[in-house]
Amino acid sequence: MAISTNNIGVGAINIIRMSGRESLNILSEVFSNKKINNCKSHTIHYGYIVDNNEKIDEVLVSVMFAPKTYTLEDIVEINCHGGYAVTNKILEILLLHGARLAEPGEFTKRAFLNGRINLLEAESVEDLLESQTDNQSILAMNHLTGKTTELITSLREKLVGLLSNIEVNIDYPEYVDELQITKENLTPILTEVKNELEQIIKESKNGELIKKGINVAIIGKPNVGKSSLLNALLEEDKAIVTNISGTTRDSIEGSLIHKGILLNLIDTAGIRDTSDVVEKIGVEKSKEIMKSADITILVLNNNEKITSAEEELLKQLETKNNLVFINKTDLETKLEPIKTKLPIILGSTIKKEGIEELKDQIINNFGLENLESKKLNYLSNTRQITLAKEALNNINNVIKDNEANIPIDMLTIELKSAWENLGKIIGEYYEDELIDNIFKRFCLGK
What we know:
Low-confidence stretches: 244-250
Order of helices and strands: EEHEEEHHHHHHEHEEHEHEEHHHH
Oligomer: single chain
CATH topology of the largest domain: Rossmann fold
CATH superfamily of the largest domain: P-loop containing nucleotide triphosphate hydrolases
Distance between the termini: 10 Å
Largest sheet: 6 strands, mixed
Helix content: 40-55%
Structural class: alpha/beta
Shape: flat
Mean pLDDT: 84
């Protein structure tokens, strides 16, 4: 049992959910409408929650019988008024009559353990609840409705078919009607599986970015307009802007959604040599943020000549997928043409020029400018992608061993490992500790 709605005491209605075979019995002990004992599934009933003949709240109760429910168990949902006191009083009454408070994510955990959804679909429930953009919700729904599962299941079917054929060839050599697996006909099948896995892993990098957003670090020396750029991108005065060098001494963060993609912006302290202890800490932190960000925007001042320190930053940034924003183009140009492979955007934070172009370029750098919702069926978290990579490694080992003329029956070990690793993505194989950790991240009531 748990409250399945958020912001207790704020909304007009709260929903208290119970799941399990005793749910209706517990409800009948505290519900004034005794017709509930003989009700049909998926019906709604009006009445009062009562305690010692005292009416506690006027409610509507939804009753859903197994197996056509979220958990495949009997479910009762009490729609009560949204006040903090009344909601907690009803919880207290239900506890006294034998209910138990649910753990975080327990309803979805039960749905998984009872076989209603697989692990990939279960994880997508949390993603759907946390979605901030259309693309995030579409990605989660494609997981939840099984589109991504189909990709993994298809690969597993190819592998299990291969394993079955090899076993038949070994145990029943007289079955000449079965495909005889040899080095020559094994190679194209393995290559096909390898190519599909590589494509899934490649596209799943987009899935991670869609899910968590693109982390964008804004760096540069003091007073080039980093904080002004953050404010211009966010269209609000998030960071303090002054003409005094070193105003920003710690990172300032803000987020925006551009063309369906979440951009997590981090304005950093100006990078320069300094004897100021506090500013020095900020500079070191800026360098760490630059290393960990998905993309870094180096801000240069159009009204000043480039410094040796900035030239060094340019060299460092060329090793990754980064950008250069030349600010203050409304002022006299003193910055000489710079030599870099990085895309350069010209603009002015004062006149709001180049800002939209910069947003577009961030997304274009990751190839996310033309996303199609029907294709948003990537893997989207580290657990899933790591297992896909392990399965790919297994397939590569099989290909290598096959080329080295290792006996076919010896290849089944790695083939089975690949099949199992893909199974772990969707929860065909799992450890109890892993499952507990996954569902602990969920909110109460889901």
